Amino acid sequence: MGHLDMRALAAQLLVVGSPLADPVDPTLAAVRRLGVGGVILTGRSAAGVRVVADRSAALQGSVPNGRPGLLVSVDQEGGQVQTLSGPGFGTIPSAVVQGGWAADRLTGAAERWGSQLRAAGINVDLAPVSDVLSPRLGARNLSVGISDRTFGTAPDDVASGVVAFVDGLDRARVAATVKHFPGLGQVAPNTDTSRDVRDTVTTSDSMSLEPFRRAIAAGVPAVMVSSAIYARIDGAAPAAFSRAVITDLLRDRLGFTGLVVSDDLGRAVAVAGVAVNQRSVRFVAAGGDVVLTVDPRAAAPMIDGLSRRAAGDPAFAATVVAAARRVLAVKQRLGLLRC
Questions:
Q1: CA-closest candidate to residue 142, choices 67, 192, 90, 84
Q2: How far is CA 129 from the centre of its chain?
Q3: N or C: which end of the chain has fewer CB within 10 A?
Q4: Contact indicator for 217, 150 with CB cutoff of 8 Å
């Protein structure tokens, strides 16, 4: 890590969108010029494993000499949220269906789906959804309920499904990412499309946190934090910008030492009121590690914000270094360190 200066370390915290529908991938420039740490394949592709593997290889080949390889991530949950399909990819049922399976069946299926991702050059799955859906909201929950993205409405049932899915991906050597901490099951609006999404139910002791607790105990490598506001934990800031949520609750109370990943900070309406170059700063200052933006154009200002704040604030610079160490530790486990 000693050969990376502060700007390069800040860039390692960025995961940027790579649109599958665009044959001229604008993310290649962000990888070459900015040295970002990872990409997320966005949109949909039915081209199959071989085509996606070629794209992943092209992205990895764009990494500047001496830099670590990329975290290549995707939303491959199942049902309505299956980014990759076609030859070599199985059809993944929704989480509602998966939640009705025995744990060993789900683990075996997730290992198979993870192996398909690995063959396509994907090393991070932004799944499974670990939110406990409120029975009161049901399909009126526009984040996860309407699209059957949750394993159920009972914390223990959801936790069992989450741990089984995470275990399967781990066996396939793909890093799972449980989401959306501390849960989007208790709100109706979607943070991607609505401002001021506010959960007035969840507390630091809620049983709806049980799936996250169990996943952490099982060694999940990454947790994605939502952009909703949790009034009974920190009513002043979205979770992605909240030290009370990320550091006090997730890190200190639940004991999570892995990667904390943001939900989208590029196009999500929930964070639109914050300047782009400050979204990354606020997330990392709260205790986060991986700044995810589906908009690759946001990468440069986000890196600028991190490096400028670090230049004038030694404590923040140390926070960036600590986050980069966690990113590189995961990359080492995934075989992505080239130096």
A1: 192
A2: 10
A3: C
A4: no
Calculated CA dihedral for residues 196, 180, 231, 241, nearest 10 degrees: -70
Q: What is the DSSP letter of 24?
A: S
Q: Nearest Cα to 158, choosing from 216, 205, 222, 214?
A: 214
Distance CA 80, CA 229 (A): 26
Q: What is the mean pLDDT of each run of 10 residues along the chain (339 residues)?
A: 87 96 82 95 97 96 92 98 98 97 98 98 98 97 96 98 98 98 97 96 98 98 98 98 98 98 97 97 98 96 98 98 98 87
State phi, psi for 82 to the nearest 5 degrees.
-130, 100
- How close are the terminal C-alpha atoms of the chain, in Å? 9
Q: For the chain, what is the largest distance between any 2 Cα atoms, rounded to a whole number of angstroms? A: 53
Residue from 256, 257, 264 nearest 280 by CA:
264
| Alpha carbons 98 and 161: distance in angstroms, whole number | 7
- Cβ pair 237, 273 in contact under 8 A: no
pTM of the model: 0.97
Per the structure block, which two tokens stand in for 143?
A: 């984040």
Phi, psi values for residue 96, rounded to 5°: -60, -45
What's the Cα-to-Cα distance from 204 to each of 59, 131, 182, rounded to whole Å? 40, 15, 9
State the amino acid at position 123 in one-letter form: N
14 backbone φψ class: left, alpha, beta (φ>0; ψ -120 to 50): beta
Q: Residue 28 class from Cβ within 10 Å (0-12 exposed, 13-18 middle, 19+ buried)? A: middle
Between CA 158 and CA 135 the distance in angstroms is 13
Residue 205 buriedness (CB in 10 A; 0-12 / 13-18 / 19+): exposed
CB 133 within 8 A of CB 150: yes
In whole angstroms, give the CA distance from residue 248 to residue 256: 11
Is the preceding omega at residue 314 within 30 degrees of 0, hence cis? no
Instruction: Tell me the two tokens of residue 215.
Output: 């996943």
